[in-house]
């Protein structure tokens, strides 16, 4: 087997108020000079300001940029401003973190992830989902964050919908692992028992703690953040998003390309997991009940997406990242089969 390198975050700081230690954390990681803070329009006030003040208090020179879309244009716009920068921080939701992560990767710089919401498992992963023209938002290889600073006071104040979305993104590991096992059996695709075990254990744990996930509870934020980080570490161990992305993610990526107003990434993946679990002959009701307990969407209506788009995304899902074999096979679902599946699982 070829030698492999597993890149993991060196330091993970979680808890209420940790964002105020950003400057000290960067200093302890031996960084100095100029730092670039990449953030969003909303998350600048919510968190980036505190990050910048904390960096300045430790004598870091700081610059900041606000980005909106997780596009290659945004990435290149940031990258062009990194010439005299020694470290990049991403402070925001998944899109902001991915842009910062990819810009740092292209510039050969270290990256620190400062999530302001626990909405997806890209917080600690070595992947970035960047839209590039026709290419959808399937994740690309990127640098693993050298550090994660997850302030649970900020995260728990984010709309609860974002926390529920993060839970759903973890639940989606169930069908991602079933697809991975299938590809290993059918095509002898490389399969990592340890990455799969970590990914599945993380999903099982979040479902077991579903009742503890409540709006406004800092403990809930800590629980979901730890699970998202653990899911991201499984991706690092596998060297791909396989442990957390299978047919349910193909459905979500297809929906991103088709629906006029897509829902949150995790929300779409959760609904995809219900349907793909049925295709696998598994207990889709177990998935549906778990998502309901976490207040994540389980139907097209709750996603705010018309049934027609759900059916169309199901028929297109197999065309996303074709090299990744899943229960959808190479030919995917016919329209009738898609409609039947969505109805049988009460999604439409
Ligand atoms: N790189 C990876 O491994 C992964 C990347 N992703 C990517 O992440 C993106 C999804 O991330 P999301 O966070 O769901 O969407 P997002 O980045 O669009 O954020 C959703 C909304 O929440 C807002 N927000 C963030 N923190 C907030 C706070 N504390 N208070 C109020 N509003 C806040 C943002 O401003 C935005 O309007 C997708 O592009 C997806 O492809 C998803 C999973 C894995
Ligand atoms: O969303 C992800 C894991 O939750 C990444 O998956 P993709 O590689 O399919 O973009
Ligand atoms: Zn995901």
UniProtKB/TrEMBL annotation:
GO CC list: cytoplasm
Residues that coordinate or bind substrate: 121, 169, 253
Catalytic reactions of this protein: sn-glycerol 1-phosphate + NAD(+) = dihydroxyacetone phosphate + NADH + H(+); sn-glycerol 1-phosphate + NADP(+) = dihydroxyacetone phosphate + NADPH + H(+)
EC number assigned by the record: 1.1.1.261
Residues reported in the UniProt entry to bind Zn(2+): 169, 249, 265
Cofactor note: Binds 1 zinc ion per subunit.
One GO term (biological process): phospholipid biosynthetic process
UniProt keyword S-adenosyl-L-methionine present: no
Pathway: Membrane lipid metabolism; glycerophospholipid metabolism
Domain of life: Archaea
Main location: cytoplasm
Annotated positions binding glycerol: 121, 169, 249, 265
Cofactor list: Zn(2+)
Subunit structure: Homooctamer.
PANTHER family according to UniProt: GLYCEROL DEHYDROGENASE, GLYCEROL DEHYDROGENASE 1
Protein name: Glycerol-1-phosphate dehydrogenase [NAD(P)+]
UniProt source species: Methanothermobacter tenebrarum
